Structures are given as structure tokens and as C-alpha cells.
Here is the input.
Amino acid sequence: MATLSYITSDIQAAVREKYGHELDVNDIILSPTKKEFEGDYTFVVFPLVKVLKFSPAQIAEELGQCIKANSRFVEDYNVVKGFLNLQLNQAFWQQCFEELSDEKFGQAGRNGKKMMVEFSSPNTNKPLHLGHIRNILLGWSVAQIAETRGYEVVKTQVINDRGIAVCKSMMAWKLFSGGATPESKGMKGDHFVGDYYVKFDKALQKEYAEWQDSGEADAQYDARHKDEESREGFFKRFKNDYFNLYSPIGRETKEMLLKWEEGDEETVALWKKMNNWVYSGFDKTYEALGVHFDSINYESETYLLGKESVNKGLSDGIFYRQEDGSVWVDLEDVGMDKKILLRSDGTSVYMTQDIGTAQMRYEEHAMDSMVYVVGNEQDYHFKVLFEILKRLGEPYADRLYHLSYGMVDLPSGKMKSREGTVVDADDLIKEVIDEARIASKERGAVSHLEAYKQEDIFRKIGLAALKYFIIKVNARKRMVFDPKESVDMQGTTGPYIQNAFVRIQSVLRKASQAEAVDMEGSNIYIYNEAEKELISQMIGFPEVLDEALRQYDPSHIANYAYGLAKSFHRFYHDHVIYDPENPDQSASRLELVKRISLIIEKAMSTLGIEMPDYM
RNA sequence: GGCCCCGUAGCUCAGCUGGAUAGAGCAACUGACUUCUAAUCAGUAGGUCGCACGUUCGAAUCGUGCCGGGGUCACCA
Here is the structure.
């Protein structure tokens, strides 16, 4: 039982005794008392006023008296308006401290539930970029948090390895590569393939520009442009139609897609070769970010799924067929639209595939819940998907969650591939580590270590800066990524938190070398205000984890870890931790800061951020 | 236009299911290192919480309507 819940029980008992009223413990909110008032925890009595029909001050006063008389932990109280401030005794803090001494503090027991988390889910025509990093960090963190709180977690991604976009890279490679490979060019495979995707677009663009001078182009413009639409604006909009209707290279690419779908040997071989290049590139990026997956779905294996369910839904009358043969679902009764599920030629669409994939996953993993980490531009898609799965009667349908996160903008505005402003993941990772190396060498605090250990520290610091910068922002919100700020190591940053950890390791090393403190046989030590505040913060950790999980939002943990590190830094500044002259105090404080470092390490590890021992 | 998300200090962000005088960091200025790591700490300055109503003992938080920004409304994924 968490120590703090003794206090809520005391309040509950006092309300029962004084007023004969039964309060639900969940309705009792205890918050840390604001600094400007006396006390440790505050209970707000206003909500009771209506029920009990006494003045707030009177209720607070009577409850305070009663609690003080009966609680083994409350030594005094004071009342300010409707706020009952409770002062807790040393026994309380001692008990909290024992609670913290549990090796597994924060870690919940297995709850027997399985959660599946889908994140990253890239296309194989481009390397990963900053947006993927946010996605990956969110997915990974949610998975870690869930695991910490007792879930069995399956981390998964669905790789978009097929379709017209992939064929574009393949076509460009066929046309322009002269047989080059990532090896021959000394390139990471995903970047290599990505370059051909860009080459394709350039070739198409060139072709398109020439076509625009043709009579057919004039005819199209005359026939289809909107009022007051410029030629330039029209042709920008028309590009996709050009690709489908006129482009020779477009026609060839579409033929390639058809060949792929028919299983043409040569096409499939090229496709495999190029995708494997991409995967080896992705693997390096994932490894650099410290993430991995338990299961991977390839779209090439799932894109035909879902048709059976749609047909079943059709015969059950959940869906309907139009004259042209296409199948639809009508969701207008719940405020959504009609949505197509099978094209008139019987082929499936994205939604169909997602239905099938969900079912396949359930058959395979029997998960209790499923989280999709996907950007908020797909909010509507998931609303519809979940509604359809519900109508199909899928047993897990009400335990699906779309973790919808905001786009990442640059200080200059949106990232645009056409303008070359997309921030590449690998470049970014390298940059933050380089920056950490420079800053660290300037300080010189790790120069005594071997070179490879130093490099490992630079890596940890750089990645901490990057990851923390992204994960500290509420997932739902659109965020601005300033490359300059992302390598900052002062203030609300990953390295600031790492520094608290490192300082603690440093003190612990010093104390253990001195061996002057008997950690076991120490007397009871009376905590000062700063120490109480630290303990109070620490015992809040499990609740923070639960809240982050409930909201699927790791930023709560990021903020919590910062708050704890900040309190520690102040404590460290104001108080001597290891003092050979004062063994009882030293023993207590050493144990205290050790617990802090464990919580910081645990909290940050749920965010995918590692702690160095030196920095 | 319909629906969804966002709007808090110059900038980037916190602020839990409504609770005391709205908080951090960055940037600016001032101070603190012969002492456990100064990637630190302490201080100064900076706000009609987009606007207006409403609900409430109490609203940054809940509701409605505006304003501003973004997204989405394809037989694309």
C-alpha cells in the first residue's frame, strides 16, 4: 500500500466519524502544499461543503482536529479558507522512504494483458526523417511505459513496401543507375534508394515541363482550369493526372506495378533487392535510436487482406454494394461519411487493408488492446476504421487507440520534400552527437576515460538532447523543432537530467571509496524540508507512469524527470551529501540520492534515454 | 463550407479528472566555483492565459459563439 494512501484513508475516516458521510477514496485529492503555506499535503474541502452543509472553514477545522487526533502520520494541521494543510511526522517520511527502497519501485507486477503498439511504419522509397523520429520515440516510450506498468507489449510496424511510389524508385534505378549499388557508392541503402526516388521525380518533372508546351496541354488547361486559375497553378494541380494520362515514364512505371502484382520474376527480384537495401539502412537508424520491433508486417503481405470481412459485412447488411459493384459503408448516422471499401473492380483500398491487418493481428497475438502511433492527418481515417471494426463485431474494437501526434515544423515553417527542407534522421543523429562531443571535450570531464568509452558517452548525451527535446512536448500538439535548441544541453534538456544522475554517481563513488559510512547501522535521521520535498516527489513516480499510460503521453514522464532532477540539483547545491564527520546524515542522504538516481534512470529509460556515469 | 486539433511571457513549452498570488527553460541583466561534476545554483525583469458570454463558492482548465493557425473531407496511402 502506498504510504500516501494512509492519509487519504485518515481523511475518509474523519469524514465518516464527524459527519457520517462515506467518501470514495478516489474523490479525495491530496496535493502537495504550496510553498508559501505551512504543511506537506493539502486537502481541498470545498467539494464537501454542498454535501455536508457547513462552512468550508468549519469543515476543514473539524476534520483537521479529528485527523490529528487519530492519524499516526499527521502531526499538525492548519486551515486557510477551504484548504486543510496537513503536516506529516517523521514516521511518515520514514515509511515513504522504505517504500522507495523497494528495488522494483515504479515497476508494477504483470497484469496479464497484452498491448500491441504500432509505430514508425515507413515507406521504402525514402530514408527516415524527423517526423519518423517523433513517431518512433512516442511509440517506443508508450511501449516501455506499458511494460513498466505490467503489460506484455508487442512492438510492431507495417512497412509500406509496395505500390506506385516504390515502383518509381525501381524505375529510376533501372533507367539511371548503370547497375550501381549502395556498396559501390558507399552509401546507406535507404539513402541510396531514396536518391532514385528523387531522380524519378526530376525526370518526370522535366518530361512534364516539356509537355506543358504541347497543344494537348493547352487543351487540358482550357477545358479544366478553374476561374482565375493561373497556368502555373493549374499544372501544379494537374501533375498527378499528367502522370496517369500522358507521361511515358509514368506509363512504364504503372506497367511495372502491374507486373509486380502478377508476380513477374524480374520485377519481383528487383523489388526485393532494392527493399533489402532499404531495410539494412532502416536497421542502422533504428539501432542508432536504440529501438527494435517484435513483429513486422509488410504491406506486400497484407494489402489483399480484408476483402473477406468486407464480403461478410456485405452479407450481414453492414455494408452495401452500388450498381457499379463498389462496396461502401454508410456512417452518416454517427456523423461520418460514406466510405468506400472495395473498388468497382473488386480491389481493396487502404481501409480494407487496415481491417484485414487488425484481424490478422488479433488472430496471431490475441492482444487486449492496440495502439496506432500515426500522425494527426489520419485522425479521420482511424475514426472510420474503429467504427467499422466495431460494426463488424470485432472483440477488441473498443480497445483500439489512435495515438495521434502533431506534425513537426521547423522555425522556417513546414518541412517540404520538394524544397529540400526535410530533416534527415541519420544526419540529425550524427549532428547531435557531434555537438555533444564538442561540448564535452570543452569541459574535459571525461578525458581520463578510454576513447571508446568517451564516444559512448558523447552518443548518450547527444541522443538524450535530441530525444528529450522531442518527447517533452505533449504528443497531441504540433511542435516546432529548432535544430539549434535541440542540441542545447542546459536548462530543460536531456543532458541536464543526465547531469543530475552523473553527479549522484560521482558522490556515491567518492563515498564508497572512503568506506567511512556504515549504511546499515545508522540511526533514524530527521529529514529537513528539502529532503521531504524530494521524497514527496519520488513517491509520485508510479502515479506519473499511470497517468502517462492513461493518456498515452510520455511527455508527463519527461516533465516529471526534469522536476526531480531540478530538485536534486538544488539540494546538491544547498547541502553536503557525503560528510565523513556526520555518518548518520551521510548514510541517509547517500541512500536518498541513490534512490533519486534510480528513479531518474528508470523514468528516462521509459523514454528511451540512457544515463552515462560520467559526462 | 462540414468535421477534427491547436491558441498561456519576446521564443520553446508545463499547468493532472475545475482549487490558494498562472509556472519552467531559452534569450537579457546581476551574483555564486581552492569544497561531492558550474552541462549547476540563487536573483531581477517579462502575462488583459486569442476574444466574448455562460456554468460554479471558485475557470487557463468545463459549455456556447466568434477570431486566428493547422489538418481532413479521393474508386491515394
